[in-house]
Specification:
Blueprint lengths: L10 H9 L8 H15 L8 E4 L4 H4 L6 E3 L12 E7 L8 H11 E12 L5 H15 L12 H10 L3 E14 L2 H11 L15 H15 E2 L2 E14 L18 H5 L9
Length: 273
């Protein structure tokens, strides 16, 4: 009998957090990333006519892609097979219980030679808060509880595209440094973003206030810059294409018809056995 793996995200809690988000004050990262995605697409020599955006905040995208299909980032995406030539999956993949499954669904929904572009938070995100919270809770209570979502490193996330069957996969990282007056101001911003704790294994009772007081002390001791506290947000962008016969493919090893030394106009030195 196959066991169902435990879910990482409490979907109901995630939706509550998003409903409480401040769409006026808390969407600065969402808007910055949306600007970046539009810049990236402007450099692609392709006109996209069937666009879908997978997002937890459709309000960000209605004005940018007025003709796009806006899709909720649920476990089963509301997409039909080979219906899109562009899918944007934005700031939702890090909350997915099955990120590979999300990518596979996107690939099936793309037409041949269609493009997927994703943006998600990477493993360096909130590294300062994560370290201080963990030490503060350990000192205060003698234990640890899940408080900040574990996020993938760029190498691991890039490999997911290959596992999902995408061609020509590319991943790159954009680190963003933000500063706050206190760690409490950072936590308020996370609430405004809809990015507070929605882990299925999170502690569901009120936390000891001493944990947050000690977190502030540790944060200020370790990560203060000009009397403000540094917070890192790492955004990992990934692109991949639905396979198509027209795409360039690597040559089979040993199939070259010309020598590299001839192309470089140099002599070839053979290695000694």
């Amino acid at each position: 009998m196959t066991k169902t793996p435990p879910k990482l995200t409490d979907r109901a809690a995630l939706l509550r957090n998003r409903q409480r988000a401040d769409l006026d004050r808390g969407m600065f990262l969402q808007n910055l990333i949306a600007d970046d995605i539009q810049d990236r697409l402007s450099m692609v020599n392709r006109d996209f006519t069937n666009v879908a955006v997978v997002t937890g905040f459709p309000e960000i995208w209605r004005g940018r892609f007025p003709n796009a299909t806006l899709v909720e980032d649920s476990d089963i995406l509301a997409l039909t097979a080979k219906s899109q030539d562009l899918i944007i999956h934005t700031l939702a993949l890090h909350w997915a219980n099955d990120p590979v499954g999300q990518l596979i669904q996107c690939r099936h929904a793309l037409k041949d030679d269609g493009l997927l572009l994703t943006a998600s938070f990477g493993g360096q995100t909130l590294q300062e808060l994560r370290a201080c919270l963990a030490q503060a809770e350990s000192e205060t209570t003698g234990g640890l509880s899940p408080r900040i979502l574990p996020m993938g490193e760029i190498r691991d996330l890039g490999a997911l595209l290959q596992r999902a069957g995408f061609a020509l996969p590319v991943a790159d990282s954009l680190p963003l440094d933000v500063s706050y007056e206190t760690s409490l101001h950072l936590m308020r911003d996370l609430r405004a973003m809809g990015e507070t704790n929605a882990l299925a294994a999170r502690q569901k009772t009120l936390s000891n206030r001493a944990i947050f007081a000690r977190t502030e002390e540790l944060y200020r001791q370790t990560f203060a810059q000009d009397d403000r506290l540094k917070a890192t947000f790492e955004v990992i962008f990934m692109t991949g294409w639905a396979p198509d016969e027209s795409q360039p493919k690597p040559l089979r090893p040993g199939s070259a018809s010309a020598r590299l030394a001839d192309a470089l106009k140099t002599s070839e030195t053979k290695l000694k056995p």
